[in-house]
Amino acid sequence: MTSHGTAETQKLIENLESQLERLVSQLQDLEECREEMDNNEYIETKQDTIDQMRELNQSLERLSSGNLSLVSTFSSMRLALRAAISEAFKTPEVIRMFGKRQPQQLRERLQQVEERFRLNKISDDQKNREKAEILVALQQLKEYLTAEELQFLDEQNSVQISFMEELPPEVIRMFGK
Predict the structure, then answer these.
(1) Are the beta carbons of 127 and 84 closer than 8 angstroms?
(2) Which pLDDT does position 49 carry in this prediction?
(3) 144 Cβ contact list (under 8 Å, min separation 6)
(4) What would the pLDDT profile of 20-39 be if each residue is shown by its tens digit?
(5) What family does the Swiss-Prot or TrEMBL record give for this protein (predicted)?
(6) CA 124 from centroid of its chain's CA atoms
(7) Bigger pLDDT: 93 vs 119
(8) CA atoms of 49 and 138, how far apart (whole Å)
């Protein structure tokens, strides 16, 4: 047997990524349908989704502690889950791109946010919140931020990133170039 579990490991990773994608989509759908739901139903459904994310995060922690070759892949998913659980990121698309380590897509999303604001499709508050989320995600992925972007982040007090401060430095370093 030459694969030594390589195919099984890849299948496990694909299944976990699929589960993360499903939970993020569920969270996104929930936010899109919020107006159609009563408040109790919304809160209960959101809590259930966050509980499922916590369970997935715990599974990833157990799996990554046993196999170092999976640490990088699982850590990426765990960071995205922590972001969602802590609600530091309110935008499911940002969580998804962050979890998949997609800085170019995050940059494109940032341009879309600016464009939606220019077209008066979103408020200034919503633009600032989404922009801050995207810039924090890019910063945590060790992407270059302009002086203007860094200044913007310094001015924003609404985005909470305490979940990142709790992470050990070796996990944060995994996202470096």
Answers:
(1) no
(2) 85
(3) none
(4) 888 888 888 888 888 898 98
(5) Belongs to the CTNNBIP1 family.
(6) 22
(7) 119
(8) 25
Outline where 87-174 has alpha helix (H): 92-99, 103-118, 124-140, 147-155, 162-165, 169-173
Is 159 within 8 Å of 140 (Cβ atoms)? no
Q: What is the pTM of this model?
A: 0.50
- Cα separations (Å) of 35 from 4, 39, 131? 50, 9, 23
96, 88, 85: which is closest to 133 by C-alpha?
Answer: 88
pLDDT tens digit sequence for 114-146: 999 999 999 988 898 889 889 888 888 888 989
173, two tokens: 């370093």
Within 10 angstroms of residue 162's Cβ, the number of other Cβ atoms is: 9
| CA dist list (Å): 58 to 10, 123, 162, 167 | 19, 37, 19, 15
